[in-house]
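step 4 of 6: structure.
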Amino acid sequence: MIIGNVEVKSLTRLAPMAGISNAAFRMVARECGSALTTSEEIDAQGIFRKNAKTRYDIANYLPEEKPIALQILGADADTLVPGAQWLQDQGADIIDLNMGCPVKKITKTGRGSALMKDVAKTSKILEAMRNAIEIPFTIKIRSGWDEKHVNAVEIARMAEDVGVDAITVHPRTRSQQFSGMSKWEMIAEVVDAVNIPITGNGDVKSMSDARRMVAETGVESVMIGRGAMGKPWVFDESFESLTDQAKYDYQTRVINRHIQLIIELFPEHFGLVQMQKHLSWYAGGRERVRSFRVQLFSARTYDETREIFDKYWESVNPKNAEQLDMAVV
Ligand SMILES: Cc1cc2nc3c(=O)[nH]c(=O)nc-3n(C[C@H](O)[C@H](O)[C@H](O)COP(=O)(O)O)c2cc1C
């Protein structure tokens, strides 16, 4: 897929997720095969007010992450235009506007999916942003505000008319939040309605789900969010064909790299929460995970966390399980 002048070299890519898709996780997703990643939502008000947390924590990215899309969140052109220009100046390759966030705190101030309610007003905001930046401009939308206002096709046509370069569609309404299964038919309707590239998103957990989404909807690219939590190797085409031991060794390399990036990039009080959250997901679906998690979240430093994890991780090494089986025989 090509977005403006940016080539997206893989079929699947990591979704923006607040509190999760930060530089460390984006980097490991990228190294596993997600060719373009998108930052967490970056509050335009925070940029505008020169909030240090917004400007230098959330908007931070590594040079090796490029090309990168930085996602902006806001309700009006007065903040979104200078915010997008500032992100462009920081070296973003793409500016993505969040038009999908369902969280009440966000929508009650007109941000996120609330932008899907008033098409005429939002059209003016998109036009102002389009004219203010030179780099590709994309939007991420839901199917609509609620069941009575399903307007993804209308929004997509309007966005194409004002010069938006590509759209990501997560086919749930704001009132559905994340419940039920997403309706991929809605993605196909958007693909049919416009001539700009469409990325599909929603309930993709594997490369075969991604291929099914392409076959069923005609999208050029697939975004994976929750399916990548604890599984960034979902972006690697070859992962599923590996043996159990090779999978484990691959996972060990990825996890070690993730731990190293967290330590390098974040102060311990913030990084510790990130490290424990992701390590807990990495252990998902394995043996004795419950007692491991209790121990993990009781650790108070990087070193303690590392020690608890390493011990647990070694205990689930398929090599050791084989030796254990042989001992039982
Ligand atoms: C914890 C969490 C945080 C999210 N934060 C954002 C965000 O900052 N920006 C955004 O556009 N979408 C955000 N999303 C939505 C995801 O990008 C994605 O659209 C959604 O999870 C559906 O895809 P999935 O089924 O692959 O998870 C978030 C989702 C989750 C679960």
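step 5 of 6: annotate
 - The chain has two domains: 2-235, 243-325.
 - The first helix runs from residue 23 to 32.
step 6 of 6: archive
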